[in-house]
Amino acid sequence: MRCTSAWIGWALCLCASLAVRAQDYTEDDEMILDLVGEDRTDPETGTDPAAEFIRCNKVAWRIPGQYIVVLRQGTHESQLQRTIRRLRSKAARRGYLVEILQTYSGALRGFLVKMSSDVLHLVIAYPSISAAFQQQPHRDFFPQKLHFLITCQIHHLSSADDGGRTQVYLMDGSVQSSHREVEGRVLITDFNNAPEEDGVRVHRQASQCDSHGTHVAGIVSGSDSGVARGAAVNLVRVLNCQGKGTVSGALAGMEYIRATLLARPVDAVVVLLPFAGGLSRSLNTACRDMVANSAVVIAAAGNYRDDACLYSPASEPEVITVGAVNSMDQLMSQGAGGTNFGRCVDLFAPGDDIVSASSDCSTCFTSRSGTSQAAAHTAGVVAVILSSSQIASPVHVLHMMLHYSISNTIDFLSLSESHRLTTPNLVAAMPPAIKTSPNGELLCRSVWSERSGVVSTDRVISRCRQGEEMMGCSSYAPEGVRVGETITMNGGHMECIAHNGPAGKGVYAVARCCVISGLRCQVHASPEQGQAAQCVGPQHHLTGCTSMSTAEISSDSHPRHSQGKRCTVKEGVTSHAICCHAPSLECNLLENISADKDQVEVSCPSGWTLTDCSAVSRGSAILGPVAKGNSCHVYGVTGVDGAAGAAVCCRVAPLEQQAATPH
Predict the structure, then answer these.
(1) Residues with Cβ within 8 Å of residue 103, at least 6 apart in sequence
(2) CA 335 – CA 324 distance, rounded (Å)
(3) 598 has catalytic annotation
(4) Of 120, 150, 362, 645, which has fewest CB within 10 angstroms of its CB?
(5) Strand 560-562 relative to strand 566-568: parallel, antiparallel, unpaired?
(6) Full-model pTM
(7) In the sheet that 520-525 helps form, which strands lie side by side, from edge to edge?
(8) Catalytic residue at 212?
(9) Bridge-partner residues for 644, per DSSP?
(10) Per-residue pLDDT tens for 40-75?
């Protein structure tokens, strides 16, 4: 099935931030200032940061006359209502009508307003306002003509659990709840915030309006085609019969789900977002807030054969972003489109010619393709994991998904070198069983930053998710020029920072982010250049080392692990030691030195987890270390001097036996 030409216009939308200075107060503002004084709130002055007006560069993606206005952090509900009253009053004095379509009081505090663009400068002028976003659409993927399947074979994923203790909130169009696949499994909520359909020839037959949502719901919990056949699906309608929606509608849907869960809390919640749109800071923020409230949020990567980091909600680091592969575990391709990719994708799942419920009749099936289907598969697997285990946090669910995924089956030759490097080669699979020790299992993943600029002072930052601890930090320069990496603390969390250096052509920061019960990590810097950084206290293990030089990294300038808890460096180099503690945690160092090869691999043995990957070049520059799964790969600039790699391997010691040291 192919993407029709009607949707070619839904291409990438890059959002530009236009900072507008807040205007000085005029006589028209006197009444407003008096009201602020009566509420015993000091009037804000022009010293506040300028508000932003953010809109899509692509004109076709803008919805004229509608704006999402976001107030500054810490703003109270009373201030929100005052801001609305002020805006209405000032606009009316200038002869303009302002219509408030929606207010937000959850992850974001603000409102959706319909007004003339001539009034926009009044919105930007308020010191309490952080930003105004021009309304933009999002949509599901690949509108397709449905085909009946006389014969079909549906691939069943087997598991001991059917996801019966999990509630899935599906934000989509309508669902044919009477279809035999989903009958009794889908609740059509009373929420509906879908825009009117475009054009005058829109046929709103039920089968057309229900097609995408019914197919996705069937993949999640269908009686034959479903992954989690016991999971309950709750439809939150944010897409119209054409598969289109708006950011404001998605935000309102998020608030509805949040309010529902506050009124009726449940232990296991999945929020499925099978759509994508242009980059939206407000939508990403709402997703992040949902995860902070213990929901697992799953987003489709998008079907634009592009970098998923350029779309929302796929670009939000706290959600699980899913790309699509075909039956051969290769990247899904559909005409001019295909699955999105890149560092913002967490994993891939089946998304090509997927058989599920068709809305043409209550017993019909059809096949559809797209990252919506891949995200639905992942939502089903997550529902089973949540239902069958005691793992409650979203980040633990992500690590379980990655741990049991099938690795290194996808051919990335069609991608650019940068995307081949940062796109995870993982295909989702159903865990055979959920078995954890009392302290859990140490699970880690690599988090890549974007590539830095080419100026010598440029740098990039990689961060872990909520609930993860950073156990390692490294940098990678495709052209071999870098000065190293450092770790800083921001709000109590580590940040891995990679520095480009003189004549550098860009560098990546790579954080090694891990989860285990009771894991706590801290960082210690070397006292001076050339002196070792070390861990303090017998309970802390050295899990990672960083190095920073005043020149390009070359021979032996990367720290070497020695004496158990020290990161030793040469003259002129500073280092950070990452020191971690968890019940029964033990760590050891493995090294591999090659005298005649420019590539070295060091792998942790079975039962151990890679927490740090270090590289040392023996006389020639190195590109840097790359952690792939449980192995450390070191790539040196082509030469005869060889390279060396060092891997830190950690695990939770088995209770029934003495911990063995890897060789």
Answers:
(1) 80, 84, 110, 111, 112
(2) 14
(3) no
(4) 150
(5) antiparallel
(6) 0.79
(7) 459-462, 493-499, 484-490, 541-549, 573-581, 520-525
(8) yes
(9) 593, 616
(10) 333 333 445 567 777 765 566 667 788 888 888 877
